[in-house]
Protein backbone atom coordinates (compact mmCIF):
# COMPACT_ATOMS: atom_id res chain seq x y z
CA UNK A 1 0.00 0.00 0.00
CA UNK A 2 1.43 3.36 -1.09
CA UNK A 3 2.28 6.09 1.40
CA UNK A 4 0.99 9.59 0.66
CA UNK A 5 3.72 11.35 2.64
CA UNK A 6 5.72 12.86 -0.23
CA UNK A 7 2.81 13.84 -2.49
CA UNK A 8 0.17 14.98 0.01
CA UNK A 9 -1.29 18.48 -0.40
CA UNK A 10 -4.11 20.66 0.92
CA UNK A 11 -5.41 22.90 -1.82
CA UNK A 12 -8.23 25.03 -3.15
CA UNK A 13 -9.47 23.43 -6.40
CA UNK A 14 -10.93 26.72 -7.61
CA UNK A 15 -7.48 28.00 -8.62
CA UNK A 16 -6.70 24.91 -10.73
CA UNK A 17 -7.97 25.22 -14.30
CA UNK A 18 -7.66 21.49 -14.99
CA UNK A 19 -9.17 20.30 -11.72
CA UNK A 20 -12.33 18.91 -13.31
CA UNK A 21 -10.33 17.03 -15.93
CA UNK A 22 -8.21 15.43 -13.22
CA UNK A 23 -11.04 14.32 -10.94
CA UNK A 24 -13.01 12.98 -13.90
CA UNK A 25 -10.29 10.34 -14.19
CA UNK A 26 -10.96 9.06 -10.66
CA UNK A 27 -13.49 6.29 -10.09
CA UNK A 28 -16.79 7.30 -8.45
CA UNK A 29 -16.28 11.03 -8.96
CA UNK A 30 -19.47 13.08 -9.09
CA UNK A 31 -20.65 16.59 -9.79
CA UNK A 32 -20.11 17.40 -6.11
CA UNK A 33 -16.34 17.00 -6.52
CA UNK A 34 -16.26 19.66 -9.25
CA UNK A 35 -14.99 23.24 -9.17
CA UNK A 36 -18.50 24.55 -9.83
CA UNK A 37 -19.95 23.11 -6.62
CA UNK A 38 -16.97 24.31 -4.59
CA UNK A 39 -17.53 27.82 -5.93
CA UNK A 40 -21.23 27.75 -5.08
CA UNK A 41 -20.51 26.79 -1.47
CA UNK A 42 -17.57 29.14 -0.93
CA UNK A 43 -19.19 32.14 -2.66
CA UNK A 44 -22.58 31.68 -0.98
CA UNK A 45 -21.42 31.20 2.59
CA UNK A 46 -17.78 32.23 2.72
CA UNK A 47 -16.63 28.68 3.47
CA UNK A 48 -12.98 27.93 2.74
CA UNK A 49 -12.18 24.94 0.49
CA UNK A 50 -9.61 22.55 1.99
CA UNK A 51 -9.26 19.66 -0.43
CA UNK A 52 -6.92 16.96 0.84
CA UNK A 53 -5.23 15.37 -2.16
CA UNK A 54 -2.35 13.11 -3.02
CA UNK A 55 -0.51 12.49 -6.26
CA UNK A 56 1.13 9.36 -7.58
CA UNK A 57 3.75 10.09 -10.25
CA UNK A 58 2.20 13.54 -10.81
CA UNK A 59 -1.22 11.96 -11.34
CA UNK A 60 -4.08 12.73 -8.94
CA UNK A 61 -4.65 9.60 -6.85
CA UNK A 62 -6.89 10.72 -3.97
CA UNK A 63 -9.26 13.57 -3.11
CA UNK A 64 -11.15 14.27 0.10
CA UNK A 65 -13.06 17.57 -0.43
CA UNK A 66 -13.72 19.51 2.78
CA UNK A 67 -15.09 22.96 3.52
CA UNK A 68 -13.67 24.79 6.54
CA UNK A 69 -16.75 26.30 8.24
CA UNK A 70 -16.34 29.03 10.84
CA UNK A 71 -19.40 30.03 12.83
CA UNK A 72 -19.75 32.00 16.05
CA UNK A 73 -22.99 30.06 16.66
CA UNK A 74 -22.10 26.48 15.77
CA UNK A 75 -18.33 26.48 16.01
CA UNK A 76 -15.62 25.60 13.55
CA UNK A 77 -15.56 22.27 11.73
CA UNK A 78 -14.77 20.55 8.44
CA UNK A 79 -17.59 19.14 6.31
CA UNK A 80 -17.25 17.02 3.18
CA UNK A 81 -19.34 18.70 1.84
CA UNK A 82 -22.10 20.96 3.25
CA UNK A 83 -25.51 20.99 1.52
CA UNK A 84 -24.38 17.96 -0.45
CA UNK A 85 -26.31 14.69 -0.73
CA UNK A 86 -23.18 12.57 -0.93
CA UNK A 87 -19.49 13.15 -1.54
CA UNK A 88 -17.42 9.98 -1.23
CA UNK A 89 -13.68 10.34 -0.72
CA UNK A 90 -11.96 9.47 -4.00
CA UNK A 91 -9.04 7.21 -3.12
CA UNK A 92 -7.32 5.10 -5.77
CA UNK A 93 -6.60 1.45 -5.11
CA UNK A 94 -3.34 0.93 -3.28
CA UNK A 95 -3.37 4.32 -1.55
CA UNK A 96 -3.27 4.28 2.25
CA UNK A 97 -6.66 5.74 3.24
CA UNK A 98 -5.88 5.52 6.95
CA UNK A 99 -2.86 7.76 6.50
CA UNK A 100 -5.01 10.30 4.66
CA UNK A 101 -7.56 10.23 7.48
CA UNK A 102 -4.82 10.77 10.06
CA UNK A 103 -3.53 13.77 8.09
CA UNK A 104 -7.01 15.28 8.05
CA UNK A 105 -7.44 14.73 11.79
CA UNK A 106 -4.09 16.40 12.49
CA UNK A 107 -5.09 19.39 10.36
CA UNK A 108 -8.43 19.56 12.19
CA UNK A 109 -6.69 19.62 15.57
CA UNK A 110 -4.31 22.35 14.43
CA UNK A 111 -7.23 24.49 13.26
CA UNK A 112 -9.52 23.89 16.26
CA UNK A 113 -12.26 22.04 14.41
CA UNK A 114 -14.94 20.54 16.64
CA UNK A 115 -15.56 17.66 14.26
CA UNK A 116 -15.09 16.36 10.72
CA UNK A 117 -18.11 15.16 8.75
CA UNK A 118 -17.85 12.78 5.82
CA UNK A 119 -20.92 12.39 3.62
CA UNK A 120 -20.23 8.93 2.32
CA UNK A 121 -17.12 6.79 2.18
CA UNK A 122 -18.31 4.02 4.47
CA UNK A 123 -15.82 1.51 3.09
CA UNK A 124 -13.04 3.60 4.61
CA UNK A 125 -14.69 3.54 8.05
CA UNK A 126 -15.87 -0.10 8.32
CA UNK A 127 -16.14 -0.12 12.13
CA UNK A 128 -17.38 3.45 12.62
CA UNK A 129 -20.87 4.34 13.85
CA UNK A 130 -22.68 6.38 11.16
CA UNK A 131 -23.81 9.82 12.29
CA UNK A 132 -26.82 9.73 9.94
CA UNK A 133 -28.42 7.19 7.61
CA UNK A 134 -30.13 7.91 4.31
CA UNK A 135 -31.32 6.13 1.21
CA UNK A 136 -29.90 6.89 -2.22
CA UNK A 137 -31.54 6.21 -5.58
CA UNK A 138 -29.96 5.96 -9.01
CA UNK A 139 -31.33 5.38 -12.51
CA UNK A 140 -29.22 3.65 -15.15
CA UNK A 141 -29.60 5.66 -18.35
CA UNK A 142 -27.52 3.33 -20.51
CA UNK A 143 -30.62 1.56 -21.81
CA UNK A 144 -32.85 2.85 -24.59
CA UNK A 145 -35.78 5.09 -23.71
CA UNK A 146 -38.51 2.42 -24.24
CA UNK A 147 -36.65 0.02 -21.95
CA UNK A 148 -36.36 2.65 -19.21
CA UNK A 149 -40.03 3.49 -19.60
CA UNK A 150 -40.85 -0.18 -18.99
CA UNK A 151 -39.03 0.03 -15.65
CA UNK A 152 -41.40 2.74 -14.39
CA UNK A 153 -44.02 1.59 -11.92
CA UNK A 154 -47.57 1.55 -13.27
CA UNK A 155 -48.63 4.30 -10.89
CA UNK A 156 -45.83 6.54 -12.15
CA UNK A 157 -46.87 5.87 -15.76
CA UNK A 158 -50.48 6.74 -14.98
CA UNK A 159 -49.37 9.98 -13.35
CA UNK A 160 -47.36 10.91 -16.44
CA UNK A 161 -50.42 10.33 -18.61
CA UNK A 162 -52.54 12.36 -16.19
CA UNK A 163 -50.17 15.31 -16.50
CA UNK A 164 -50.07 15.08 -20.29
CA UNK A 165 -53.85 14.85 -20.71
CA UNK A 166 -54.28 17.75 -18.26
CA UNK A 167 -52.29 19.98 -20.58
CA UNK A 168 -49.09 20.31 -18.56
CA UNK A 169 -46.21 21.69 -20.63
CA UNK A 170 -42.55 21.07 -19.78
CA UNK A 171 -39.68 23.38 -20.71
CA UNK A 172 -35.92 23.33 -20.10
CA UNK A 173 -34.10 26.54 -19.19
CA UNK A 174 -30.62 27.86 -18.42
CA UNK A 175 -31.72 31.39 -17.52
CA UNK A 176 -31.70 33.41 -14.31
CA UNK A 177 -35.41 34.06 -14.81
CA UNK A 178 -36.08 30.32 -14.63
CA UNK A 179 -33.94 30.03 -11.48
CA UNK A 180 -36.00 32.83 -9.90
CA UNK A 181 -39.22 31.04 -10.79
CA UNK A 182 -37.95 27.80 -9.31
CA UNK A 183 -36.89 29.68 -6.18
CA UNK A 184 -40.47 30.94 -5.76
CA UNK A 185 -41.74 27.36 -5.89
CA UNK A 186 -38.96 26.21 -3.59
CA UNK A 187 -39.96 28.76 -0.94
CA UNK A 188 -43.58 27.60 -0.77
CA UNK A 189 -42.46 23.96 -0.80
CA UNK A 190 -40.05 24.47 2.09
CA UNK A 191 -42.80 26.22 4.06
CA UNK A 192 -45.06 23.21 3.48
CA UNK A 193 -42.31 20.98 4.87
CA UNK A 194 -41.75 23.25 7.85
CA UNK A 195 -38.30 24.45 6.83
CA UNK A 196 -36.81 27.83 5.84
CA UNK A 197 -35.56 28.05 2.23
CA UNK A 198 -31.93 28.50 1.28
CA UNK A 199 -31.27 32.22 0.64
CA UNK A 200 -31.79 33.53 -2.87
CA UNK A 201 -28.08 34.35 -3.15
CA UNK A 202 -27.39 30.61 -2.97
CA UNK A 203 -29.55 30.02 -6.05
CA UNK A 204 -27.93 32.98 -7.80
CA UNK A 205 -24.56 31.31 -7.28
CA UNK A 206 -26.02 28.07 -8.66
CA UNK A 207 -27.01 30.04 -11.74
CA UNK A 208 -23.63 31.77 -12.02
CA UNK A 209 -21.37 28.74 -11.54
CA UNK A 210 -23.56 25.88 -12.75
CA UNK A 211 -26.60 26.70 -14.86
CA UNK A 212 -25.05 29.51 -16.91
CA UNK A 213 -21.98 27.30 -17.49
CA UNK A 214 -24.17 24.54 -18.99
CA UNK A 215 -23.47 22.26 -16.03
CA UNK A 216 -27.11 22.25 -14.96
CA UNK A 217 -30.63 22.82 -16.16
CA UNK A 218 -33.92 24.08 -14.71
CA UNK A 219 -37.01 22.13 -15.74
CA UNK A 220 -40.36 23.88 -15.23
CA UNK A 221 -43.91 22.61 -15.61
CA UNK A 222 -46.68 25.02 -16.59
CA UNK A 223 -50.46 24.80 -16.55
CA UNK A 224 -52.52 27.54 -18.20
CA UNK A 225 -49.31 29.62 -18.35
CA UNK A 226 -48.79 29.26 -14.60
CA UNK A 227 -45.59 27.61 -13.37
CA UNK A 228 -46.72 24.88 -10.95
CA UNK A 229 -43.70 22.58 -10.52
CA UNK A 230 -40.02 22.37 -11.29
CA UNK A 231 -36.69 20.69 -10.69
CA UNK A 232 -33.01 21.61 -10.84
CA UNK A 233 -30.50 19.15 -12.26
CA UNK A 234 -26.69 19.21 -12.29
CA UNK A 235 -24.36 17.17 -14.49
CA UNK A 236 -20.70 16.36 -14.75
CA UNK A 237 -18.98 13.96 -17.12
CA UNK A 238 -21.63 11.39 -18.03
CA UNK A 239 -23.49 11.55 -14.70
CA UNK A 240 -26.49 13.71 -13.80
CA UNK A 241 -27.96 14.64 -10.41
CA UNK A 242 -31.52 15.60 -9.48
CA UNK A 243 -30.74 18.19 -6.80
CA UNK A 244 -33.91 20.14 -6.05
CA UNK A 245 -37.61 19.70 -6.67
CA UNK A 246 -40.54 21.96 -5.82
CA UNK A 247 -44.22 22.37 -6.61
CA UNK A 248 -47.41 24.24 -5.80
CA UNK A 249 -49.59 21.82 -3.83
CA UNK A 250 -52.75 23.44 -5.20
CA UNK A 251 -52.05 21.64 -8.47
CA UNK A 252 -50.86 18.34 -7.01
CA UNK A 253 -53.71 16.38 -8.62
CA UNK A 254 -52.27 17.19 -12.07
CA UNK A 255 -49.12 15.16 -11.29
CA UNK A 256 -46.75 17.65 -12.89
CA UNK A 257 -43.78 16.37 -10.85
CA UNK A 258 -43.98 12.99 -12.53
CA UNK A 259 -43.90 14.55 -15.98
CA UNK A 260 -41.00 16.84 -14.99
CA UNK A 261 -38.93 13.82 -13.99
CA UNK A 262 -39.82 11.73 -17.03
CA UNK A 263 -39.02 14.55 -19.46
CA UNK A 264 -35.71 15.12 -17.66
CA UNK A 265 -34.88 11.41 -17.90
CA UNK A 266 -35.59 11.48 -21.66
CA UNK A 267 -33.49 14.66 -22.04
CA UNK A 268 -30.49 13.05 -20.37
CA UNK A 269 -30.90 9.83 -22.36
CA UNK A 270 -30.77 11.82 -25.62
CA UNK A 271 -27.61 13.54 -24.44
CA UNK A 272 -26.07 10.10 -23.75
CA UNK A 273 -25.63 10.43 -20.01
CA UNK A 274 -25.09 7.10 -18.26
CA UNK A 275 -26.77 7.67 -14.90
CA UNK A 276 -29.12 9.96 -13.01
CA UNK A 277 -28.77 10.21 -9.23
CA UNK A 278 -31.96 11.13 -7.40
CA UNK A 279 -30.08 12.31 -4.32
CA UNK A 280 -30.66 11.32 -0.73
CA UNK A 281 -33.91 10.49 1.06
CA UNK A 282 -34.62 10.20 4.78
CA UNK A 283 -35.77 6.59 5.47
CA UNK A 284 -38.90 7.88 7.22
CA UNK A 285 -39.94 9.95 4.17
CA UNK A 286 -42.03 7.17 2.62
CA UNK A 287 -43.74 9.41 0.07
CA UNK A 288 -40.50 10.67 -1.46
CA UNK A 289 -39.01 7.19 -1.37
CA UNK A 290 -41.97 5.72 -3.28
CA UNK A 291 -41.81 8.58 -5.78
CA UNK A 292 -38.18 7.72 -6.58
CA UNK A 293 -38.74 3.97 -6.60
CA UNK A 294 -41.60 4.63 -9.00
CA UNK A 295 -39.00 5.61 -11.58
CA UNK A 296 -37.45 2.16 -11.38
CA UNK A 297 -34.45 3.50 -9.48
CA UNK A 298 -31.87 1.31 -7.78
CA UNK A 299 -31.92 1.88 -4.01
CA UNK A 300 -28.80 1.91 -1.85
CA UNK A 301 -27.61 3.24 1.51
CA UNK A 302 -25.86 6.56 2.09
CA UNK A 303 -24.15 6.91 5.45
CA UNK A 304 -22.61 10.01 6.96
CA UNK A 305 -19.78 9.87 9.52
CA UNK A 306 -18.90 12.48 12.13
CA UNK A 307 -15.52 12.27 13.83
CA UNK A 308 -15.54 14.21 17.10
CA UNK A 309 -12.13 15.72 17.84
CA UNK A 310 -12.71 16.03 21.60
CA UNK A 311 -13.55 12.37 22.18
CA UNK A 312 -11.44 11.05 19.30
CA UNK A 313 -14.32 8.87 18.08
CA UNK A 314 -17.17 8.69 15.57
CA UNK A 315 -20.47 9.91 17.01
CA UNK A 316 -24.13 10.21 16.09
CA UNK A 317 -25.41 13.54 14.79
CA UNK A 318 -27.77 15.50 17.05
CA UNK A 319 -31.21 16.37 15.67
CA UNK A 320 -30.99 19.59 13.63
CA UNK A 321 -34.66 20.57 13.43
CA UNK A 322 -37.16 19.26 15.97
CA UNK A 323 -40.78 18.41 15.11
CA UNK A 324 -41.80 21.41 17.21
CA UNK A 325 -39.61 23.74 15.15
CA UNK A 326 -40.95 22.23 11.93
CA UNK A 327 -44.51 22.90 13.08
CA UNK A 328 -43.67 26.51 13.94
CA UNK A 329 -41.87 27.10 10.61
CA UNK A 330 -44.84 25.75 8.66
CA UNK A 331 -47.04 28.46 10.23
CA UNK A 332 -44.76 31.38 9.41
CA UNK A 333 -45.14 33.58 6.32
CA UNK A 334 -42.73 32.87 3.45
CA UNK A 335 -41.14 36.31 3.83
CA UNK A 336 -40.22 35.50 7.44
CA UNK A 337 -38.87 32.08 6.48
CA UNK A 338 -36.69 33.71 3.81
CA UNK A 339 -35.20 36.00 6.46
CA UNK A 340 -34.54 33.05 8.77
CA UNK A 341 -32.95 31.06 5.95
CA UNK A 342 -30.63 33.93 5.05
CA UNK A 343 -29.21 33.86 8.58
CA UNK A 344 -29.56 30.18 9.44
CA UNK A 345 -27.86 28.28 6.61
CA UNK A 346 -24.53 30.07 6.89
CA UNK A 347 -24.18 28.45 10.34
CA UNK A 348 -25.88 25.14 9.57
CA UNK A 349 -23.62 23.79 6.82
Record the SSE blueprint.
Blueprint: E1 8-11, H1 19-23, H2 35-45, E2 48-56, E3 59-69, E4 77-80, E5 90-91, H3 97-110, E6 115-119, E7 132-140, H4 145-151, H5 154-165, E8 169-173, H6 176-192, H7 200-211, E9 216-223, E10 226-236, E11 239-247, H8 256-270, E12 275-281, H9 286-293, E13 298-308, E14 313-315, H10 323-331, H11 334-348
Explain what you see.
- With about 350 residues, this protein is an alpha+beta fold.
- The protein has 2 domains: about 5-130 and about 305-320, Gcn5-related N-acetyltransferase (GNAT) (Aminopeptidase); about 140-275, 3-Layer(aba) Sandwich (Aminopeptidase), CATH 3.40.630.30.
- Helices cover about 35% and strands about 30% of the residues.
- The protein has helices at about 20-25, 35-45, 95-110, 145-150, 155-165, 175-190, 200-210, 255-270, 285-295, 325-330, 335-349; strands at about 10, 50-55, 60-70, 75-80, 90, 115-120, 130-140, 170-175, 215-225, 225-235, 240-245, 275-280, 300-310, 315.
- Strands 1, 2, 3, 4, 5, 6, 7, 8, 9, 10, 11, 12, 13 and 14 form a 14-stranded mixed sheet that branches.
- Helix 5 crosses helix 8 and helix 6 packs across helix 7.
- The longest helix is centred in the middle third of the chain and has 17 residues, at about 175-190.
- The mean pLDDT is about 95.
